[in-house]
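tool=predict chain=A
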Amino acid sequence: MLAFAPILAAVQANCHLSDARHAQELSLCNYLLSMREYYRWEHDLPLDAVPPRAEVARWIAEREELWESLAGADWSPLPSPRAGRTPSTWTR
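tool=predict ok
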């Protein structure tokens, strides 16, 4: 699994950046439902588990702080044979 650590870190960084850029496009209801499911996925909770509201609220606040810190950030290049290419240049 260690061989995949650099690419997993880059993918996760790009996911955070994408979330930071596009989460505001959702309605409040859809945003909160999406974040609840994202919390469930990130914490490996089964579908029938009810996530604790206070913990989800804290997690959302932390996630939004992370997104604010990413303002103006660039995509992370993915370590691969196409080294140095970012998602925005894949189609070129």
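The chain has a mean pLDDT of 86. Helices lie at 5-22, 28-42, 53-69.
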